[in-house]
Amino acid sequence: MKITLLVIGKTDAGYFVDAITEYQKRLEHYIPFDIQIIPDLKNTKSLTVEQQKEKEGELILKSIQPGDYIVLLDEKGKEYTSAQFASYIEKKTHTVSKRLVFIIGGPYGFSQDIYNKANEKLTLSRMTFSHQMVRLIFVEQLYRAMTILNNEPYHHE
C-alpha cells in the first residue's frame, strides 16, 4: 500500500516546505508516501464558490486512480487521537491494496462529486487551519502514527 496526500495548490511559505519535506524524508523509512499537488485554478474571481469547487473537483477526480481508497480531510470528518490514527493506518495497511489517498480540498472545501466519491472523511481538528498548516499537521501525524506502530519513542502518552 502507498499513502498519497493530494492537495490543491503548492505550499509557498519556505518554513512549511522545509518542515513538510523533513517529515516526508522521515516517512520514507516506514511506508511509501508522496504528496501530489494539483495546480491552483487560474482566474477564479469570475467564478462562484460552487463553480470553483466543481472545477477543483474535476481536477481531483482526474488524479484519482482505480482502486484508490479516498479519505477527505474535512471538518465534518471523524476525529482521532494520535494513537487511534495509528491504529487506523495499521488497519488500512491490511485492507487497502493500492493507494490510500488523503485529500485536502481548496479554500471552499469539496464539490458534491468528491464527497460522493470518498470512502470516508477524517478531521485533524475541529479548529480551522490554513491549507498549508493542514499539510504539515497531516504529515507530522502520519509520521507519529508510524513511530507509534513501531514502538519508537517519538510519541509520549
UniProtKB/TrEMBL annotation:
Amino acids binding S-adenosyl-L-methionine: 73, 105, 124-129
Keyword hit for Ion transport: no
Subcellular location: Cytoplasm
Highest taxon above the source species: Bacteria
Keywords: Cytoplasm, Methyltransferase, rRNA processing, S-adenosyl-L-methionine, Transferase
EC number of this enzyme: 2.1.1.177
Record GO terms (molecular function): rRNA (pseudouridine-N3-)-methyltransferase activity
A Pfam family that the UniProt record links to this protein: SPOUT_MTase
Swiss-Prot/TrEMBL catalytic activity: pseudouridine(1915) in 23S rRNA + S-adenosyl-L-methionine = N(3)-methylpseudouridine(1915) in 23S rRNA + S-adenosyl-L-homocysteine + H(+)
Family per similarity comment: Belongs to the RNA methyltransferase RlmH family.
A Gene Ontology cellular-component term: cytoplasm
Quaternary organization: Homodimer.
Enzyme class: transferase
Keyword Glycoprotein belongs to the record: no
Species of provenance: Dysgonomonas hofstadii
Name of the protein: Ribosomal RNA large subunit methyltransferase H
Lineage: Bacteria, Pseudomonadati, Bacteroidota, Bacteroidia, Bacteroidales
Function: Specifically methylates the pseudouridine at position 1915 (m3Psi1915) in 23S rRNA.
